[in-house]
Amino acid sequence: NAGVTQTPKFQVLKTGQSMTLQCAQDMNHEYMSWYRQDPGMGLRLIHYSVGAGITDQGEVPNGYNVSRSTTEDFPLRLLSAAPSQTSVYFCASTEAGAGELFFGEGSRLTVL
Amino acid sequence: DQQVKQNSPSLSVQEGRISILNCDYTNSMFDYFLWYKKYPAEGPTFLISISSIKDKNEDGRFTVFLNKSAKHLSLHIVPSQPGDSAVYFCAALGGGTSYGKLTFGQGTILTVHP
Predict the structure, then answer these.
(1) What backbone phi and psi angles, to 5 degrees, belong to B83?
(2) Cβ-contact B37, B64 below 8 angstroms
(3) pLDDT of amino acid A17
(4) How do residues B2-22 score in pLDDT, each as one tens digit?
(5) Given CB 3.0 to 4.6 Å as the disulfide criterion, which of A43, B4, B101, B110 pairs with B105?
(6) Which of A59, A100, A107, A108 best probes binding to B when mutated, by most B CB atoms within 10 angstroms?
(7) Nearest C-alpha of chain A: how many angstroms from B45?
(8) Contact B13/B108 with Cβ under 8 angstroms?
(9) Residue B96: partners with Cβ closer than 8 Å, 6 or more residues away
(10) Are A56 and A48 in contact (CB under 8 A)?
(11) Taking CB atoms and an 8 Å cutoff, what residues of chain A touch B103?
(12) What is the maximum span of chain A, computed from C-alpha positions, in angstroms?
């Protein structure tokens, strides 16, 4: 019963490098989201998706790209990492009609 | 502009006593509120929720109260246990926003001392 799986759990990047944070869920949830957690800021929504092929921006989308080619997967791409993107990233999913999000364990990213 | 605010960064209580965590919101379109609990190195987990048509929801030791006129909600934990020590986030949904698009507060670190 995997739920929401995020990889990698830890990553260190240099400024300007690119990478993809992977997220997969096995609950057949329609809705998937990416949040970042920073001290004193809570969790802020980066991008979300209401179904395969449909994505939209959240509160802090700049510097991030997403795509949703399947129901299960929702990768988050950093095209050119910046130190301001140092954070803990959480992927979450939920089914239609529900408010409760199921979160992954998080990915801690450090950009030097 | 922070639409959901948790003004107490931390709270310390004794085991067996009541913990009260507070949350204020500014967007009157919010109509569903949730509390999440987060342990270090783990993702947040859903704790309890309340719809705006109610003013109280109870689940075991956890009770959430909603005061719509004051745009305020609180989470009561009675009795508090050391295992309740965690970061607690309140979150809100509504105003036609899609499910999965929660707005979170900054979080309150709860420490329950044995």
Answers:
(1) -65, -10
(2) no
(3) 97
(4) 899 999 999 999 999 999 999
(5) B4
(6) A100
(7) 7
(8) no
(9) B29
(10) yes
(11) 45, 59
(12) 41
Q: Which two tokens stand for residue B10?
A: 């931390």
Poorest-confidence range of A18-27, A34-43, A73-82?
A: A34-43
Instruction: Identify the residue among A101, A102, A105 best suited for mutation to test binding to B, counting B beta carbons within 10 A and taking the highest.
Output: A101
B23: amino acid identity, one letter: C
What residues pair up with A52 in beta bridges, in sequence order?
none
Digit-coded pLDDT (tens) for A40-98: 888 999 999 989 999 999 999 999 999 999 999 999 999 999 999 999 999 999 987 67
Confidence of residue A33 (pLDDT cuts 50, 70, 90): very high
Does A43 reach chain B within 8 Å, measured CB to CB? Answer: yes
What CA–CA distances, in Å, run from B24 to A86, B48, B66, B95, B107?
A: 28, 16, 10, 17, 12
- Residue the block writes with tokens 């507070």: B22
